[in-house]
Amino acid sequence: MSSELQVKVAVITGAARGIGLEIAQKFHSEKYHVVILDYNKEALQDCKAKLKGKKRYSYFLCDVSKPKQIQKVFDQITSKFEAVHALVNNAGIAIFKPAQDITFEDWNDVLSINLGGTFNCSKIFYPALLKGQGAIVNIASISGVRASTLRIAYGTSKAAIMHLTKQQAVEYGNYGVRANAIAPGPVETEMAKLVHSADIRTSYADAIPLARYGTMEEISNAVYFLCSPAASFINGQIIAVDGGFDAAGVGLP
Ligand code: NAD
Fold first, then answer.
1. What is the tens place of the pLDDT at every residue in 225-240?
2. What's the CA-to-centroid distance between 250 and ligand 1, angstroms?
3. Which terminus has fewer CB within 10 Å in the chain: N or C?
4. CB-ligand 1 contact for 184 (6 Å cutoff)
5. Which of 189, 212, 245 should be mutated for ligand 1, with most atoms under 8 A from CB?
6. Is the pLDDT of residue 11 over 90?
7. Ligand 1 center to residue 13 CA distance, Å?
8. Alpha-carbon distance 73 to 146, whole Å?
9. What rounded mean pLDDT belongs to the chain?
10. What pLDDT is stored for residue 121 in this prediction?
């Protein structure tokens, strides 16, 4: 087998920017070949420019809500590599609106990307994960643990991702593929800039015992740990990386 076939491979969705890009760089620093998937052409170009000259990265313009597009990526990756060792389902969108204002289109977009994308990528990459005896980490959210205003679609999609993770842990776990989820608290990214109003920021500041937002690095470290041999008996868990927000149990307005 050539050394290219033997290399460890991590597939990270929504990795052109934000938390996904940080996760991609973490796996790269741990010597993985990293496959970056994103549907935002401009963000993908910026990401390529940022990582220019670095080997062990592949880039794919791919919408995780579209199984045919994911299948094409899978075919290309498996023609080059024997197996996949980590899949991080990070791609997500947030639409924060009062329940009465959420449109059917908003609901479908959030559910088909956040939940559907997680299901689609896991299903399509499963045969390669099985060969690699790999691990899945799904990026949920503390908004899926605790219900609060404006998050009827987003929070529901993230809660469903947590249950999907447990199903995967039970069903794929029988064959040696582990699945866990991270539920991040607030992290300063483009998404947070878009949906975290001044009110939400004040609420988080009051409700998080560590009294700050998390960093992208704090999320990527936890994701990498769950994929690493150090977590070899951890399966079906939802790990909150939230500064104690969930433990404190204080509601948002
Ligand atoms: P972000 O918007 O900065 O990055 C998300 C990336 O996903 C973007 O590059 C975007 O183009 C990509 N993406 C979105 N839909 C896609 C699709 N259909 N196909 C492929 N790529 C797609 O957001 P972020 O804050 O880095 O969020 C990353 C993940 O973390 C998301 O799942 C989000 O819900 C979750 N999260 C974020 C926070 C936070 O406070 N930032 C908190 C909890 C959970």
1. 999 999 999 999 999 9
2. 25
3. N
4. yes
5. 189
6. yes
7. 9
8. 35
9. 96
10. 99
The DSSP annotation for 143-168 comes to GGTS--TTBHHHHHHHHHHHHHHHHH
Atom of ligand 1 nearest to the CA of 186: 40
Nearest to 12 by CA among 240, 234, 233, 219: 219
117 lines ligand 1 (CB under 6 A): yes
The amino acid occupying position 191 is M
Q: How far is the CA of 92 from the centre of ligand 1 (A)?
A: 4
> pTM, whole model, 2 decimals?
0.97
Q: Is residue 243 lining ligand 1, measured as CB closer than 6 Å?
A: no
State how far the alpha carbon of 87 is from the alpha carbons of 52, 62, 135, 200, in Å: 23, 15, 6, 31
Model confidence at 3, pLDDT cuts 50, 70, 90, reads low
CA 186 / ligand 1 centre spacing (Å): 12
Q: What is the pLDDT of residue 205?
A: 87
The three-class DSSP label of residue 115 is helix
- Which pLDDT tens digit goes with each residue over 55-102? 999 999 999 999 999 999 999 999 999 999 999 999 999 999 999 999
Q: Which of 191, 201, 215, 220 to mutate to test the pocket of ligand 1 (most atoms within 8 A of CB)?
A: 191
Distance (Å, whole) CA 89 – CA 206? 30
Round to whole Å and give the CA distance between 125 and 84. Answer: 8
- Which residues are marked as active site? 154
**Whole-number Å distance between alpha carbons of 176 and 131:** 10
